[in-house]
Design the sequence.
């Protein structure tokens, strides 16, 4: 019988939640790497038992852990992330030049075809790649060096490269997103990159429609339609139907168009999910009521999904890596909160229940559908 | 025999416990101790000093003989009591953070 494994990264360790295809009873293992920040844990689509974890700490820096048995055992692999050449400067919060400094790995994106190949999105923003299972990492410096890097700036969480999407129909085409620079695309496997931010409108930067400088929080794609992209920006939910050449706003009737996560139903490419969050700076659900919003039309028309979620007095956030979907029928949706809850819906969002309530603040959630 | 005590999280990472002991050929300095430590426990590379810059991580200090030696040049010979093994060399993490 098929099953699901949920890889949860938190501020104080990683947790692995497993269930059979019914998704009613869950086993919980962890904390793995207790006391460390686990920004992201993700499995290879080729070999689901090959997992990679980004483990970091303010005391001890960055580690990468690898498991070859689905998270039962782990071994540290290479953790040297050296920028190619002299890294130069980006903008600091006040607009002054600031040197590029490696802080941590935000996102690990295993290759669609090779379990030993992984892309890493890091802070300060850059993309690295390993082809030997994590032992060695090399920067794909065409991104940082393509020409606009000196105009990138950090968001409140740091200048992070947090999203990496590989086109399943053309593995040379990769999309990435940076807070606060925007979205970028390569068509040649990472040698050259182009900003793809036409149509974004960000009122908090001097030129709201600038080529770069936008605080993109997350991008999602359905594998059957890789040219259709959905974006949760700092404010505004956006979509592109041409691989990022241009974007249009689809915030529609959302109670607030601020948020972090966005994801796509596994079997319905026009069904998308967001979690609206109140901002500026509050960063909790409107009215203390936690609700996922679903659009079955690719945006603009949204319905609130709250059955089983807190109806009142809820003041958690849902961070950008903290939503994922499985590919069972019906599609399971999962998200984690800064309050330590991981919620699951086994019916595409109609009904929700917590898998676990009292973890450390959840940073990332990744669902694996197991054979 | 040099005696080295590292923070608990690094002991867990290195899958070792308590006090570490090893020989160092040549002058006993910060750099020599860290080189020997990272050679025996490669998983510690980057956790005590940055792999690119070689700088000590900001939340770590090096103590020995009731002195904070963190700001000594890395090639300065350490006290004789450390070199002889009479006193341990402590790598200490700041007791800060949430």
Sequence:
């Amino acid at each position: 019988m098929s099953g699901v494994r949920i890889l949860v990264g938190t501020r104080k360790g990683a947790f692995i939640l497993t269930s059979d295809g019914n998704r009613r009873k869950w086993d919980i293992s962890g904390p793995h790497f207790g006391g460390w920040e686990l920004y992201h844990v993700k499995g290879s689509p080729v070999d689901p038992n090959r997992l990679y974890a980004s483990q970091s700490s303010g005391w001890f820096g960055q580690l990468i852990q690898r498991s070859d048995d689905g998270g039962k055992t782990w071994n540290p692999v290479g953790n040297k992330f050296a920028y190619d050449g002299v890294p130069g400067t980006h903008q600091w919060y006040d607009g002054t030049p600031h040197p590029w400094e490696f802080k941590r790995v935000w996102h690990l994106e295993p290759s669609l075809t090779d379990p030993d190949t992984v892309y890493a999105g890091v802070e300060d923003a850059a993309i690295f790649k390993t082809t030997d299972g994590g032992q060695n990492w090399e920067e794909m410096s065409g991104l940082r060096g393509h020409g606009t890097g000196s105009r990138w700036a950090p968001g409140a969480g740091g200048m992070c490269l947090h999203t990496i999407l590989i086109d399943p129909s053309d593995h040379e085409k990769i999309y990435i997103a940076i807070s606060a620079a925007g979205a970028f695309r390569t068509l040649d496997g990472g040698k050259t990159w182009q900003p793809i931010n036409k149509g974004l409108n960000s009122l908090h930067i001097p030129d709201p429609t600038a080529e770069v400088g936008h605080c993109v929080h997350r991008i999602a794609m359905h594998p059957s339609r890789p040219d259709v992209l959905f974006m949760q920006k700092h404010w505004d939910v956006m979509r592109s139907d041409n691989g990022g050449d241009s974007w249009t706003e689809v915030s529609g009737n959302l109670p607030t168009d601020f948020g972090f996560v966005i994801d796509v139903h596994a079997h319905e490419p026009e069904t998308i999910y967001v979690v609206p969050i109140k901002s500026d700076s509050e960063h909790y659900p409107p009215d203390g009521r936690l609700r996922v919003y679903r659009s079955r039309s690719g945006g603009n028309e949204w319905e609130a999904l709250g059955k089983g979620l807190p109806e009142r007095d809820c003041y958690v956030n849902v961070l950008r890596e903290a939503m994922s979907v499985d590919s069972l029928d019906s599609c399971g949706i999962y998200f984690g909160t800064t309050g330590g809850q991981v919620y699951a819906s086994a019916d595409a969002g109609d009904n929700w229940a917590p898998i676990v309530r009292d973890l450390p603040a959840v940073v990332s959630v990744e669902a694996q559908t197991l054979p | 025999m040099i005696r080295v005590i590292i923070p608990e999280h690094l002991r867990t990472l290195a899958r070792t416990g308590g006090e570490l002991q090893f020989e160092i050929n040549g002058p006993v300095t910060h750099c020599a101790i860290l080189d020997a430590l990272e050679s025996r426990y490669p998983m510690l590379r980057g956790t005590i000093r940055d792999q690119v810059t070689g700088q000590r991580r900001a939340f770590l200090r090096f103590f020995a003989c009731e002195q904070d030696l963190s700001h000594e040049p890395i090639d300065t010979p350490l006290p004789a009591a450390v070199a002889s093994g009479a006193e341990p060399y402590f790598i200490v993490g700041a007791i800060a953070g949430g």
Notes: Chain A touches chain B at residues 35-36, 57-63, 76, 79-80, 82, 102 (CB under 8 Å). The mean pLDDT of chain A is 97. The CA atoms of residues 293 and 304 of chain A lie 5 Å apart. The radius of gyration of chain A is 19 Å.
